Amino acid sequence: MTQILDANSPIATVFGGSGFVGKYVVRRLVRRGWRIRVAVRNPNEALFLKTYGEVGQVEVFKCSIFDVNALSACIPGSTLVINAVAGLLNETSRNMFKKYYIEGPELIAKQCAQFKVKKLIQISSVGADSKSTSVYSSSKAKGEEKIFKIFSNVAIVRPSLIFGHEDRFFNRYASLATYSPCVPIIGQNTKFQPVYVDDVALAVEKIATDKNLRGIFELGGPDIFTHKELIKKMLLIIRRKRLVLNITFNIARLMAQSFEIINKMTLGLAPLPFTIDNVKQLQRDNVISEDKNSFKDLGIKPQNIDTIIPLYLYSYRPHGQYNEITHSADKVN
Are 164 and 196 within 8 A, CB to CB? Predict the structure, then answer.
């Protein structure tokens, strides 16, 4: 139910509010009657968020999480701050990981403390571990540690593999399957606990509106699948028979090294399909820990993957939305 907006409505600043997770969070908070400040690097790409609420309910700010002056323009007066800045998956620079996952969140936390924000929610990911050999995972954990030291009322949200209409997992593999006779994957036995993006947003909404909810929340869907099982499920939905080709970790590392060399030689013009750090991430299962808060602690029943992914993967079928009609017509003829 949408709540009525008034002058006393609380204000939330959402960094990365136009991103995959961020826009779902913005929509849910708008429905709860919050006034939202969406802080993004490219305001023009976030203007669509204004249509989520009443006139003036959603404001868009040009802001970098590394710019103190920009942060001080977005945060003052906010009851809640959410850092939903999208992750850097295909990155090779340790400095970039440090910048986005340690220095950025640390600066946001300092500003929250300075302007007396009541709660800070950091969107992280399952697998964050300061001892991990993956720079991505270790940087995420070190950033969380910095936040906890600076700001007291913090909630860390760690989702497993997130799926939804705009996801970069199923859409990427489904797109590949439309023209390739095989679908190569790294770590076919690596386990994931896929979670629907709007369930993550619902969790953020509950944490935001309950002052007693804090700490680390690991969010995973109701089922656990191996990497290969997820691809097989995707292929079944898009009605395509393809060979699922497993790339061993040793071969994947060699390939990643080659990709990174070519990327540097071309000054970044050659894309990086995956990096050595991606391979390290895939060597660990991406499932929630039993000793952390979860959906159960929030009273949320996460949605099943089978009820969601057919709603958007149908476009990758041989005849797209007309696949079933075409198939029926072929039977008649």
Answer: yes
Pick the CATH number of 11-163+194-221+288-303 from 3.40.630.30, 3.40.50.720, 1.10.1040.10, 3.40.50.1970: 3.40.50.720
* Local structure of 246: helix, strand or coil: strand
Domain boundaries, the chain: 11-163+194-221+288-303
Structure tokens given for 181: 């006779």
Please tell me the pTM assigned to this model. 0.92
The pLDDT profile of the chain, 333 residues, written as one tens digit per residue, is 556 566 678 999 999 999 999 999 999 999 999 999 999 999 999 999 999 999 999 999 999 999 999 999 999 999 999 999 976 777 767 788 899 999 999 999 999 999 999 999 999 999 999 999 999 999 999 999 999 999 989 999 999 999 999 999 999 999 999 999 999 999 999 999 999 999 999 999 999 999 899 999 999 999 999 999 999 999 999 999 999 999 999 999 999 999 999 988 998 888 888 999 999 999 999 999 988 999 999 999 999 999 999 999 999 999 765 555 555 545 545
Q: What are 111's two structure tokens?
A: 């500003």
Q: Rg for the chain (alpha carbons), in Å?
A: 21
